[in-house]
Amino acid sequence: MPSAAFRSGVPDHGRVPKYYAVKARILAEIAELGVGAPLPPERDLAARYTVARSTVRQAISELTIEGRLSARQGRGTFVAKPKVIQPLSLHSYTEALRDMGYEPSRTVTAFDVVPAGDEVSAALAIGPGAPVVHLERVLLADGEPLGLESTYLAAERYPTLMDVLDPAGSLYRCMQEELGVVWAEATERIETALASPREALLLQTNPALPMLLMQRVSRDPAGVPIECVRALYRGDRIGFETRLRA
Amino acid sequence: MPSAAFRSGVPDHGRVPKYYAVKARILAEIAELGVGAPLPPERDLAARYTVARSTVRQAISELTIEGRLSARQGRGTFVAKPKVIQPLSLHSYTEALRDMGYEPSRTVTAFDVVPAGDEVSAALAIGPGAPVVHLERVLLADGEPLGLESTYLAAERYPTLMDVLDPAGSLYRCMQEELGVVWAEATERIETALASPREALLLQTNPALPMLLMQRVSRDPAGVPIECVRALYRGDRIGFETRLRA
DNA sequence: AAGTGGTCTAGACCACTCC
DNA sequence: GAGTGGTCTAGACCACTTG
User: Is domain B4-79 classified as CATH 1.10.10.10?
Assistant: First the structure.
């Protein structure tokens, strides 16, 4: 990127931190390794580049956030597969992943009825503390965790839900076919976030790794909230795509 | 979050790193301080909690990524303003920010004609190396940088663009009113990313802070690409919202 | 048991801001 | 010059995986 005709008065005094040079050298090593190949251990890289191990770790940390590397405690650090790109649309998780050649699956980590907290009760337009069905699932692609999805539904609005829902199956299909609920629209919000230690554990990742936090409220044709969802996706493994019309 | 009926075989053995406890204590301090108030210096916090300074730094780093704190070298660390939420729609930056009570502005950091790189030429459906107009601007809210937007347009498709465009004004209005270009649809992709040192400098932030990278290709009614945009937004300061219809 | 990444320490120097 | 956050070092111990 040379280029300059207009320039704001930005100094840009070539100072780059040392870990940035290390990052460039590791990036060059990655280019010569195939996907899944192990990177040399951090201690070796530190010795080879004659820097401290924590300097190597900072470089590796950034490459991990960028989705180029993937570290596993006790095993090593490996060249990562390219990021998955998921379309933003009403209920697309399994089809979208299958289209990209991944095998999608889900693991249920919670399925119960709990009192609604403030945010959930506001989103679902029910009283605070009213009972809500809570379904939490880990979303996987080829067995690797990509996201953690927590869905909340008003229990009194769907009194038979706990009986008819198979928590491992499709929530949408069950709601539509068993309960006749029609999805009309959703408001979805995306931002960066960090995982809690529990969430990081479920996602088999590290709490320092940035996540994409998606919060969604879905409504039926009358505008009544059907569900609110809090989903945390691994920022190093997935991105989202949407099509906008004028 | 107690709750458990279904449980995957996740250990969840209460181990939390020490920096996580420090983070909770700093969060409690933040709650008692107002927006814009200074946090005690890192060295003081380390002494008060009897931990190493780098442990405090890791906690502060996560709170910064989460948008709760904002550090400025040489000055201190401050309680941050809440995140801005920007609607995902075709051309909304100024109106959306004004609706939220912010004063939007832009700074031009580059405006020139350059040969298209591989990605840009593919996105614009032109030959590699063909000339493209490149407009790079910093987007600000109340004088604070929120994003860095790089727009590329095929120079041969809009031969008078460099003459009629005021780089500080609205690109959309100029294209529509001066050149009669009609926006029909756009494909937008969002993922996490890191800034380069130059980008971090322009955004007055730190290269380790996760960003939201948005890449957009806009098309006219005939499907011809009008522009491709690479925009980097500060993950600690902005999120995006979209409305989906069935 | 050996080797890996994850956390933590104690201390140093640098770059920047303010007085 | 004093005080701040940003980078870097050298070393330690822990948790986890594999042989």
Answer: yes
Show pLDDT as tens, one digit a residue, over chain A (246 residues).
323 223 223 333 345 788 888 898 899 999 999 898 999 999 999 999 999 999 999 899 989 988 999 988 888 999 998 888 888 776 667 888 888 888 888 899 999 999 999 999 999 999 999 999 999 999 988 888 899 999 999 999 999 989 898 888 888 888 989 899 999 999 999 999 988 878 888 888 877 888 999 999 999 999 999 999 999 999 988 999 888 887
Q: Are B138 and A8 in contact (CB under 8 A)?
A: yes
Q: What tokens appear for A63 in the block? A: 């490459």
What is the distance between the alpha carbons of residues A232 and A212, in angstroms, rounded to a whole number? 6
Tell me which residues from 42 to 81 on chain A have a beta carbon below 7 angstroms from nucleic acid strand D. Answer: 50-55, 58, 72-75
Instruction: Report the side by side order of strands in the sheet with A84-87.
Output: A84-87, A238-245, B185-193, B211-219, B225-234, B144-154, B131-141, B104-115
Using alpha carbons, list the distances in angstroms from residue A163 to A112, A159, A218, B27, B215. 11, 9, 22, 41, 44
Q: Which residue has the tokens 């207009």?
A: A6
| Residue numbers in A near B161 (CB within 8 A) | none
**Where do you find CATH 1.10.10.10 in chain A?**
4-79
Q: Is the dihedral of CA A196, A202, A205, A209 positive or negative?
A: negative
Burial of B107 (0-12, 13-18, 19+ CB in 10 A): middle
**Contact with chain B for residue A183, Cβ under 8 A:** yes
Q: How far apart are CA A118 and CA A31, in angstroms?
A: 48
Start-end of H helices in chain B: 18-32, 42-49, 53-65, 93-99, 118-124, 161-164, 171-179, 197-202
B17 to chain A, any CB pair closer than 8 A? The answer is yes
CATH superfamily of A84-241: Chorismate lyase-like (3.40.1410.10)
Question: CATH 3.40.1410.10 residue ranges in chain A?
Answer: 84-241
CB B60 within 8 A of CB B71: yes
Nucleotide D4 C1' to residue A74 CA (A): 38
**Residues in chain A within 8 Å Cβ distance of B245:** 184-185
Closest CA to A217 of A240, A188, A175, A183: A188
User: Three-state DSSP class for B145?
Assistant: strand
The crossing angle, in degrees rounded to 10, of helices A53-65 and A18-32 is 60
Show which residues sit with Cβ under 7 A of nucleic chain C.
A 11, 13, 15, 39, 41-44, 53-54, 57, 71-77, 206-208; B 17-19, 50-55, 58, 72-75
